[in-house]
Amino acid sequence: MLKLTGVSKTYSGGVQALQDIYLDVPKGMFGLLGPNGAGKSTLMRTIATLQQPDQGAITFDGINILQDKTALRRTLGYLPQEFGAYPRTAAFTMLKYLAALKGIHSSQQQQVVENLLVKTNLWDARNKSVDNFSGGMKQRYGIAQALLGNPALLIVDEPTAGLDPAERRRFQNILAEVGEETVVILSTHIVDDVRELCSQVAIMGRGRILKVGEPLQLMRELNGRLWTQVVSRDEVAAMRARYTVLSTRLKAGAMEIRVLSDTPPEHMQPATPELEDVYFSTLISHNLKDNLE
Ligand code: ADP
Ligand code: MG
Questions:
Q1: Which candidate, 107, 101, 184, 190, places its Cα nearest to that of 149?
Q2: Which end of the chain has fewer beta carbons closer than 10 Å to its terminal beta carbon, N or C?
Q3: CA nearest 10: which of 61, 64, 52, 60?
Q4: How many whole angstroms separate alpha carbon 168 and alpha carbon 267?
Q5: Centre of ligand 1 from the C-alpha of residue 7, in Å
Q6: What pLDDT score does 262 carry?
Q7: Structural contact between residues 258 and 247, judged by C-beta atoms closer than 8 angstroms
Q8: What's the pTM value of the predicted model, to 2 decimals?
Q9: Is 186 or 162 the better-scoring residue by pLDDT?
């Protein structure tokens, strides 16, 4: 559906934010996972036609995005990492106004907006001003806004950052529903968002796509190579020196470490791979993870 071919972007300051990106994004939920500064927002703004790459081609459903921006925008919903709303305007009024801007016929605006408010669980808050919304409500409003006009491509940039677990879950459920009919690209640095929702994931670091695949398949690739042990906190440094330690977790005053190794390390138990292990091992193999966290 969405295809990127050799897309590169260097900012005027010299940062190579995108380096020769090739990506095929099918229908469904696609997770873009990467640490801060990886280039996720740059990639999303580029696909949303808000900025031009230096090189490469992008097509969506036959549309050459870089040449025919208008055609893409007609079918695009975009929720930027940070977005504003007009102050002191009720959610309902705001959405209705945006529906008009989006070109939705006036006879349909009321119905479209009502449906979106119900879908995003904002019906009871429809007459409240968006700038008084909680973080979670604001993000759900953002999704309602992005869904105006039934986009075939929905881009959401770090929508769950700063949400509490219940709100994050609610937000994930809304996205999952949308993802059944649409191409949804979701960027996040929260591994859980991807594991629960996405049929495909790309791991990004320093402007490059480091790994792409189905979460379950990527996890399976670590089978038999992942080990765990509970050690005292003072032992962690020595373990790091000796093994590829993917992560450490405080557990009842001690540390549970997860180690990547092709042969069983002494005293360690085999562990079941998680998507987080895939993420950390990918970053480490590209020297992109600070091992002193
Ligand atoms: P992410 O969304 O994964 O955190 P970004 O796409 O925001 O990554 O940033 C990628 C890199 O490009 C970072 O090093 C960032 O500092 C740089 N960058 C982002 N936007 C600009 C800009 N407008 N001008 C110059 N550098 C930028
Ligand atoms: Mg970003």
A1: 101
A2: C
A3: 52
A4: 38
A5: 15
A6: 96
A7: yes
A8: 0.92
A9: 186
CA distances from 41 to 142, 155, 159, 189, 233 (A): 16, 10, 12, 12, 37
Q: Left if phi > 0, otherwise alpha if psi is -120 to 50, otherwise beta: which for 124?
A: alpha
Q: Find out whether the beta carbon of 40 lies less than 6 Å from any atom of ligand 1.
A: yes
Pick from 157, 187, 189, 162: which is nearest to 289 by CA?
Answer: 189
Query: Considering only CA atoms, which of 143, 107, 141, 111 is closest in space to residue 127?
Result: 141
Q: Which ligand minimizes its atom distance to the CA of 34?
A: 1
How many angstroms separate the CA atoms of 38 and 35, rounded?
Answer: 6
**35: CA distance to ligand 1 center in Å?**
11
Contacts 24+ apart (CB under 8 A), 285-293: 286/205, 286/206, 286/208, 286/210, 288/35, 288/205, 288/206, 288/210, 291/240, 291/245, 293/248
Q: Which residues contact 10 (CB under 8 A, 6 or more apart)?
A: 16, 17, 54
SS3 call for 249: strand
pLDDT recorded at residue 3: 97
Dist. CA 235–CA 241, nearest whole Å: 10
> What digits encode the pLDDT tens for the residues 61-118?
999 999 999 999 999 999 998 877 777 899 999 999 999 988 899 999 999 999 999 9
Whether 291 has a pLDDT exceeding 70, the answer reads no
Residue 42 near ligand 1, beta carbon < 6 Å: yes
Give the number of C-alpha atoms closer than 13 A to the C-alpha of residue 207, restricted to the C-beta side. 14
Residue located nearest, by CA, to atom 27 of ligand 1? 11
Lookup: tokens for 152: 């075939």
Whether 272 shows a pLDDT value over 70: the answer reads yes
Nearest atom within ligand 1 for CA of residue 11 = 25
In this structure, which residues have their CB less than 5 angstroms from ion ligand 2? 40-41, 81
